[in-house]
Amino acid sequence: MAPHTPEDKAAELAYVEDNIDFKAEQKVLERVEDNEAAGYVDPTLVVSESDDKRLRRTINRRILPLLCLGYLCQALDKGTVASASIMGWIEDVHAVGQDYAMTATILWCGIITAEPLANQLIRRLPMAKLLAGGICIWSILLIGIGFSMSIPPVFALRYLLGFFESLIGPVIISIMVQWYKVSEQPFVTSMWQCMLGTSSIITSLLAYGFYHLQGGKLKSWQYLHITIAIISFICSVIVFVFLPDSPTKAKWASEQDKKLLVERVRSNNQGLKQKHFKKEQMIEALTDPFTLCLFLLCVFNTLVVGGVGAFGGLLVTKAFGFSTLEAQLLNIPTGVISILTFIGIGYSVRKTGQTCLSMIGFTIPNIVGTVVLLTVTPGDKTKGGLVFAWYLMQIFGACYPAVLMLLARNVSGHTKRSIVYATTFAGWAGGNAASSQLFQAQWAPRYFNSLYIHLGLYACFIAMALITRQVLVSRNNKKIAAANERIAIEGEGIANLHAFEDLTDRANPDFRYCI
Q1: Residue 256 in domain
Q2: Inside any domain, residue 41
Q3: Is residue 513 situated within a structural domain?
Q4: How many domains would you assign to the chain?
Q5: What does the pLDDT look like over 212-223, one tens digit per residue?
Q6: How many CB atoms lie within 10 A of CB 73?
Q7: What is the rounded CA–CA span in Å between residue 219 and residue 215?
Q8: What is the Cα 2 distance to its own chain's centre?
Q9: Residue 113 belongs to domain spanning
Q10: CA distance 218 to 200
Q11: Whole-model pTM above 0.85?
């Protein structure tokens, strides 16, 4: 290769100087209103493919397991009473009539009450510490429930359990959005949502084992509560020690990697964190039709899923004719089905880019299973088929992670997000609160009326999924048309320059909705 001439060196130096001036000019153009990202933002920084893969592997290794651990704890804590219900708990606490159903309803009422406060705390306080503190409090409350031998203290403790569990969904989504790109979030959401199925397997195995402990100082269901409380407490310590509050607070990341971690999520156009409350964003959140869509999707989904989860054990024992031990073992495959369907819907969304249509597809098996339970009479020859139909009815649960995918990827502006998150999770809690009331004691053991109501809810969910998709498609079309018009006049600019300005999804011209 020929040596560089003085002219070549002069031209190279001029190029470098021009490039530095260009970068400096572009940095001036960007306005940063993000408390966590400030000082780590550089719109001219290019994240190479090798760096992106390296950072993604690091995040998957250091962050994702802790998110899964947190969600596993709340699923275990919340689901203990459902397993205890067929272990003699109902008789031991003298529950009658709708008392058992009310234990579920009251927990969800606690979540509804706390959601607005929880989401404002998430916006202002260190999120990892909030998550760890919440898990610790749950474990203490669960110990209390394990030693409650009458319904009134159970009601009180279940309400408090729900109040503090209101943190879990919003805080995990908020942490996920900080670390993962929009394209990665369906997979990540599926992973931590799989903990619902994992918790079902763990609880069923523990319940099966503890059910054999009869005649001791403690009841078998008390051993179950105490064991899960200890597991939760240990997990709270792990989360507190190892989970960073944001990418810029990660002690294991170098200063350069912190910049790369911030810049790799620039294309999300959602920023990291902004503590200042903006009234105009609150108004937009409350008047945005998409907020109502998310709320209703959660309500229609959980009105079904919550009831099937709470009363599944009673259906298997009282309606299908299986023993308590058989019911505990038959419940294990429901956890496996949940895990497989959560992974399946995440894969479907990632491959097709069609969240709403994927949800509709995952609703069909539940309709089939419900019709079977309504039309087939229980008997020795049919109870196997009825259990299979009941397994089919677990698939609709995968639509909830898909709703969370819509929520996580389609809302921007930190004040707006806090309001929309609170509204969405209030719908989730509200549907779950009412779901057990759809199973009235006088409708036992086959709950025909409950299942007819479920058929109507499936129709409502499908209709709302189609409406939600149309809302998002229409918004994207308008944004794309406006962008094309702007490019024709001004030319191409730097992509996603408004990512850290704390703009709402509707105000940010670079934001695109995932349908």
Answers
A1: no
A2: no
A3: no
A4: 1
A5: 887 778 899 999
A6: 30
A7: 8
A8: 60
A9: 67-244+287-486
A10: 23
A11: yes
